[in-house]
Amino acid sequence: MADVILKNVQKTFGRAKVIHGVDLDIRDGEFVVFVGPSGCGKSTLLRLIAGLEDITAGDLFIGGDRVNELVPAKRGIAMVFQSYALYPHMNVYDNMAFGLELAKSSKAEIDRKVREAARLLQIEALLDRKPRQLSGGQRQRVAIGRAIVRDPKVFLFDEPLSNLDAALRVQTRIEIAKLHTDTRATMIYVTHDQVEAMTLADRIVVLNAGRIEQVGTPLELYHRPANLFVAGFIGSPQMNFIECQVAGVGPAEVLVSLPGGGTLAVPVQPDGLQAGEAVTLGVRPDHVRISPEGALNGRVELVEELGENHLLYVDAGQGRRLTVREPGDARHEAGSTVSLDLARTFCHLFRRTGEALQPQAGATSPTSPDLTSSVA
Amino acid sequence: MTSAVAQGDVPVPRRVRGRRSSLTRSRVRAAWLFIAPSLIILALIAGWPLARTIWFSFTDADLNNLSDYEFIGFENYLANYDGEWLGLLTDPDWWRSVWNTVWFTLVSVSIETVLGIVVALILNAAFPGRGLMRAIILIPWAIPTVVSARMWNWMLHDQFGVINDMLLRLGLIAAPITWTANPDTALWTVVMVDVWKTTPFMALLILAALQMLPGDIYEAARVDGVHPVRVFFRVTLPLIRPALIVAIVFRALDALRVFDLIYVLTANSRDTMSMSVYARQQLVDFQEVGLGSAASTLIFLIIALLVVITLAAGRVRLGEDPR
Ligand SMILES: Nc1ncnc2c1ncn2[C@@H]1O[C@H](COP(=O)(O)OP(=O)(O)O)[C@@H](O)[C@H]1O
Ligand SMILES: [Mg+2]
């Protein structure tokens, strides 16, 4: 059990700076997920914590000790690799036992640990098999088992599920969550899949180009994204963004002019915003409704039926495309004209710099869209 | 017993042929068509000389007049004249050359394998100028053996050689050593030069195998704190073993046929004479085509036997599991 603290951690490969000073405080027993687009430095950050890469500048503390100069084996961590990294010529048992054999454990002790982990992961029947005789999901379990037997203070996972098919991904995800509940070890988990991030994490760290964009619980990130990047990254389908201008500023709301003439009062703190400034309005597909007298008019370009709900891709003029998610089967066809209503209490407003304006206290709450209060 | 007979009665081959579709048959025909040229060339450049050598080994042919010879059966190999055994198999020089060759092969290939692994491991590590190092290390292998053997001859010269000079200056030896003439050092000298020349080849083959290894398992071993020496013996070595066996077989076959290196370094000295040098001496110096051919045939048989043994042993172990 240990907390992990990063203080202004930086990493440079040759001349390329990949991690630009990351500050992060991971509590003991917490499940933290690093999420971000491919190439943003998630793996690098994890490998810095593991000790597989040297930290260029900054400090790393695990369980209160500064571990910058400590070899991986002495950091009390275990890592599960994306590619499983199993020894191809050893059977499952040896794969799990290999790392223990030098750790001064007795044969009986090793045997007990390996069998215990195998029982936990339900791979007891596979102990004599070679990795190539296993399916992807079974290999991943062995890789996790190899981490478990080390009894680490911190588990590190680098995209452990990305090589599995969808059904197995969900199943293994649940097992990892259960492992966290059972062991109460600190876990740091890297993924580019925001569903994995949302479902597993106590807290999510959104990374972009080597910098932290936002740290928070899954719902904090979903309901109060700190900036355009997080707003666009968390949530699927992506949040709709509409470029617009500030039409007026009230004490507790900002009036923006929508394309097509309408205005919308967004309940956010104006925080020095001036009329005439360019801002970005953000609204999730669930918070756009088709209604007879909506604020925006557009033409349906494409309909995607998903069964429990459906997506409409609406062209609102000037190349502005909005996604709408409505429950049930679609009642509109491609080519038809619709009028859209935005749930204003669920709208986000971002400055030109991408920074989000703070919502009014209690304004954005995870309840159903407040359609009646929207202004046309 | 009866069931075995009954099974034997089933016309398996004909049934298989009957099931062959016309597509399969045309594929088989195309395959034969494609390998026919190489088969013909092989028969001409390898099969024919081999057959001729084997034929000559049963004759009393002479290099001066190759058209006039008589078939004498196994007399080149073994013959009894008035109670005295004669022929190749009774010649102590032949057996000496067989022993020299086997000793040379075992020692030089062993040293080359160990050194080759060491060099390959170094070249496999990331360091600046690695590409250049890989090219440089191949130089000994790229120089024709005759040239490098001559070069070493000069360096090893008892009076003018740079090696004696250096050892004298360092005070390691009191008097110059006649490296290639002294029976105690001659074969070791040959081994040393061969190691110098062929280690790069070994290293390159092993390096290719090392580069095929997945990198992530080494990171996993690092995280688990497994000692690098242990990782080498428990992970790297088992994983490169198939490639290593192939490399060793290659080198061993080469070493068993060794000729140019030994001939240039020590000429016909009995202390270092290999089987090939012996055959050449019989054939060219003594003009005994029959006896020389008999020696060549025996070399062929010995090497063929060793190949079969190695491949059989290798298959057993390869079958176990490389990965
Ligand atoms: N060993 C390395 N040498 C040079 N550049 C690297 C190295 N490892 C990663 N990078 C670079 O660092 C950036 C982040 O990589 P990575 O952490 O693997 O991204 P992610 O895991 O988020 O997809 C990439 O631009 C990548 O090219
Ligand atoms: Mg990655």
Automatic annotation (TrEMBL), chain A:
Which compartments is it annotated to reside in? Cell inner membrane
Q: Name one Pfam family in it.
A: TOBE_2
Q: InterPro entries, alphabetically?
A: AAA+_ATPase, ABC_transporter-like_ATP-bd, ABC_transporter-like_CS, ABC_transpr_MalK-like, ABC_transpr_MalK/UgpC-like, Mo/tungstate-bd_C_term_dom, NA-bd_OB-fold, P-loop_NTPase
Organism whose genome encodes this protein: Microvirga lupini
Q: Which residues form the ABC transporter domain?
A: 4-234
What name has this protein been given in UniProt?
Multiple sugar transport system ATP-binding protein
Q: Does the keyword Oxidoreductase apply?
A: no
Kindly state which keywords UniProt assigns to this record, in alphabetical order: ATP-binding, Hydrolase, Nucleotide-binding, Sugar transport, Transport
* Bias kind Polar residues: ranges: 361-376
Q: Which GO terms describe its molecular function?
A: ABC-type maltose transporter activity; ATP binding; ATP hydrolysis activity
From TrEMBL, chain B:
An example GO biological process term is: transmembrane transport
In terms of CDD domains, this protein maps to: TM_PBP2
Q: Name one GO cellular component term.
A: plasma membrane
Membrane protein topology class:
Multi-pass membrane protein
Main localization, broad class: membrane
Which family is this protein grouped under? Belongs to the binding-protein-dependent transport system permease family.
Name used for this protein in its record: Trehalose/maltose transport system permease protein
